[in-house]
Amino acid sequence: ESNRIHHSAFRNKIVSAEEAVQHIHAGDTVAISGFASAGTPKAVTPALADRIRRSRASGADFAVNLLTGASVASDTERMLAEVDGISLRMPYQAEPTARRSINAGSMDYVDIHLSHVAQQVWEGYYGHVDIAVVEVSGITETGELIPSASIGNNKTWLDVAEKIILEVNSWVPTAMAGIHDVYYGTALPPHRKPIMLTAVEDRIGQTTFRVDPDKVVAVVETNARDSASGLTPPDAVSQAIASHVLDFFEHEVSRGRLPADSLLPLQSGIGNVANAVLQGLDAGPHKGLTCYSEVIQDGMLHLIKHGTVRFASATSLALSEAGIDELVSNIDFYREHIVLRPQEISNHPEVVRRLGIIAMNGMLEADIYGNVNSTHVMGTKIMNGIGGSGDFARNGYLSMFLSPSTAKGGSISSIVPMVPHVDHTEHDTQVLVTEQGLADLRGLSPRRRSRVVIDKCAHPDYRDALHDYVARAESVADAGHTPHLLGDALSFHQRFLDTGSMRL
Ligand code: 0RQ
Predict the structure, then answer these.
(1) Which atom in ligand 1 lies closest to the alpha carbon of residue 374?
(2) Is the confidence at residue 131, as pLDDT, over 70?
(3) Is there an atom of ligand 1 within 6 Å of 408 CB?
(4) Which of 291, 389, 411 to mutate for ligand 1's pocket (most ligand atoms within 8 Å of CB)?
(5) ipTM confidence score
(6) Which of 153, 340, 380, 382 has the fewest beta carbons under 10 Å from its own?
């Protein structure tokens, strides 16, 4: 027994994961903690997968609806998908086994903006939440819960679920307590009030979750680390994308549209490109930057340590082993520079708009007018999901989408005549960036946009075909405001499906 549970009502409920999982029934809607690699339950979900496997082996059907913060630890996602344990998944995944089930039509998947999850569950769009499984790092004398390395939707899960299983993970450093800011002021219309967060570092809530102890049916003790991978050094393409972004920031500073020293709060996605942008900023002239994003990765700790970043707000600390060590050995320092919030706040449109976020997200492809597909390969096969990209892109001060100009060894162009699936419309996209260059679409009509997108962002191998498309689309009588040849608009994609390449 660990010394993390300081309240007897909870201590009396300590059981094994195998016992706890008996509270979960076939057909239940199960809400679990976890956002990116941080804070996923470590014991109860494997026990659930095991229970489902055994139940299936004996001929019984057993699946649950699974609600999360965003993606969860990939082994959890995989284990549950492998046993066909999920009938409905919401709101985000990024794991190959689950992806296959979704694309095969055997797992229902609802891909929604991450800021909408809590309110939609409160509204009852997903029915009754039977049980929540939430990882915490401790329980206080007064019966409040100390969050672990991510917050996600945990506040909402604890509030709405009929029953609760808590995992108390003694691996999470006690020193991390206090880094969290759990805001209890959100409500449903018509009772909403302004969210009084006017700077990235503002604290508007409390450091713990509330819970009704009577709803807690089991407490499971764990001591297991989160499993984020470290960052790989950015490749040449990512570095080229980053350098265009950094040049653009200087351009905006010179025009007086961004503060010279601290710019505006940055939001960036996960991965190689985001990492390259952060590294580039670390080497640049800016000090005292701020970040208002979803996830803090190892790279951010370096920026904070160097003073490049003054403050970072997120909902998840997706750190590698080395990152956790760095955080914990300097926790008193980092606690002054990092806050974790519920995802309804980290991604809140009201706050994103007020703070004037610079939103930088990855994309699969964009079309010549700036519509962006972030989620569906060839318009049909889900990759991950929209995640928080729409929360930030629609409401940001500067909305940028970043991608290599080609994929799959050059056989796919990321700039196409028309995207076969739209996540972000031309109205949301202000800037497109590839390693080829940066297309600033602000103030441009569609016919002007197409030229800039092709010349600045498309790979040279595809430019002629794209210009040819535009010329033909514009040459027909009555070509319209946004010229397209509907019979031809998806020809790049069809050619890829037919021949394995978008090249002519
Ligand atoms: O697949 O690894 O099998 O080759 O997509 O592509 O270039 O490695 O880029 O990891 O940044 O992912 C849009 C998926 C980009 C991501 C997406 C293939 C490519 C590769 C990955 P392989 P890259 P990334 C808030 C933000 C939505 C969620 C979001 C994403 C794989 O950014 O999920 O933005 N975004 N959350 O080969 C077919 C194309 C392709 C393509 C790339 N046009 N067609 N396949 N790929 N382009 C997050 C925070 O705030 C933290």
Answers:
(1) 13
(2) yes
(3) yes
(4) 389
(5) 0.97
(6) 380
